[in-house]
From TrEMBL:
Keywords for the protein's UniProt record, in alphabetical order: Cell membrane, Membrane, NAD, Oxidoreductase, Quinone, Translocase, Transmembrane, Transmembrane helix, Ubiquinone
Organism from which the protein derives: Tectimicrobiota bacterium
PANTHER family with a match to the protein in the record: NADH DEHYDROGENASE SUBUNIT 1, NADH-UBIQUINONE OXIDOREDUCTASE CHAIN 1
Record protein name field: NADH-quinone oxidoreductase subunit H
Record field: transmembrane: 6-29, 76-99, 119-142, 163-181, 193-212, 249-269, 281-302, 314-336
Family: Belongs to the complex I subunit 1 family.
Pfam family, one: NADHdh
GO molecular function annotations of the record: NADH dehydrogenase activity; oxidoreductase activity, acting on NAD(P)H, quinone or similar compound as acceptor; quinone binding
Top-level enzyme category: translocase
Function: NDH-1 shuttles electrons from NADH, via FMN and iron-sulfur (Fe-S) centers, to quinones in the respiratory chain. The immediate electron acceptor for the enzyme in this species is believed to be ubiquinone. Couples the redox reaction to proton translocation (for every two electrons transferred, four hydrogen ions are translocated across the cytoplasmic membrane), and thus conserves the redox energy in a proton gradient. This subunit may bind ubiquinone.
């Protein structure tokens, strides 16, 4: 591998990592703005024009807050847990394609893919890292030596197991149609028709299970404030507390990008119309922005499930429906061939 390849890869890592950090920061502002408008309030509007500097002020505040480590915690695991959740959430973005290969207006001798790594098991890589994220939550709950934190960690592990099955099975239909685990190949196969039109049931299961995977309302049982105070991060403060929030918003960004890649053509334009002169990267960003707004809209619109409703929905409704989707996809492929 040449020095140029390493240089380009490092630049891509830096740009994508910086972009995800920026999205995470300003998603906190968007969350408060959207909730404010839904509740007929203004939201943050004092720090900078239209409140645009509020995320910076919040970050500085958290950095300078006192870092309290309770005496009764398992210190090593307590400190490691937020890092596990954050690293897993950020690293998952490495295999998602942002656009077609480009030579950056002739600056490079040959086109390079707009993703950090084009691996042929990209979907398995993302699922593996999303499974790792729950370890941070479970370890945070256990190491805090707090009943509320422990209950939050246990709830998160049970919820993850219940909905990760449906999430994985909902994607099988896409894999059967594309014949590849590479996300780049999945996007290229949607040049003529997005998979959401061919896999409507799979998409519905995927997006609802994604809410459960990211612990967002109406599936935020691991940190239900009326019952568990703050759940698994009750004993956390300062930047360790903010790392859990960063991992949640980064996971939202990743799952939104994955939904766009698997079902809405990724960076492809409208089926049959192409990109309409709009850069493919902007198509991708616009679609992801829609799903991020959907996460915020649902949070401030729907009430939280009871825990028994959460489990019944995962095991008795979504899992059978996801298996049915695989069966219908297989039958469709056989009949069409």
């Amino acid at each position: 591998m040449s020095v140029l390849w390493w240089l380009v890869t490092l630049v891509k890592v830096g740009v994508i990592f910086g972009a995800v950090l920026g999205v995470v920061a300003y998603m906190t502002l968007a969350e408060r703005k959207v909730s404010g408008h839904i509740q007929l309030r203004l939201g943050p509007n004092r720090v900078g024009p239209f409140g645009l500097l509020q995320p910076i002020a919040d970050g500085l505040k958290l950095m300078f807050k006192e870092d309290i480590i309770p005496d009764h915690v398992d210190k090593v695991i307590y400190l490691l847990a937020p890092a596990i959740s954050t690293v897993a959430a950020f690293a998952a973005y490495a295999v998602i394609p942002l656009g077609p290969p480009t030579d950056f207006f002739g600056l490079l001798p040959e086109p390079v893919p707009l993703q950090i790594a084009d691996v042929n098991i990209g979907i398995l890589y993302i699922f593996a890292l999303s499974s790792m994220g729950v370890y941070g939550i479970v370890l945070a709950g256990w190491s805090s030596n707090n009943k509320y934190s422990l209950l939050g960690g246990l709830r998160s592990s049970a919820q993850m197991i219940s909905y990760e099955l449906s999430l994985g099975m909902s994607v099988v239909g896409v894999l059967m149609m594309s014949g590849s685990l590479s996300l780049t190949r999945v996007v290229e196969d949607q040049a003529g028709l997005w998979y959401v039109f061919l896999q409507p049931l799979g998409f519905i299961i995927f997006i609802i299970a994604a809410f459960a995977e990211t612990n967002r309302l109406p599936f935020d049982l691991p940190e239900a404030e009326p019952e568990l105070v703050a759940g698994y991060h009750t004993e956390y403060s300062s930047m360790k507390f903010s790392l859990f929030f960063m991992s949640e918003y980064a996971a939202m960004f990743t799952i939104s990008a994955m939904a766009v890649t698997l079902y809405f053509g990724g960076w492809q334009g409208l089926p049959g119309l192409g990109t309409l002169g709009i850069p493919p990267v902007l198509w991708f960003v616009g679609k992801v922005a829609f799903f991020l707004f959907l996460f915020l809209w649902v949070r401030w619109t729907l009430p939280r499930f009871r825990y028994d409703q959460l489990m019944n929905l995962g095991w008795k409704v979504f899992l059978p429906l996801s298996l049915l989707n695989v069966l219908l996809t297989g039958l469709g492929l056989v009949l069409l061939r």
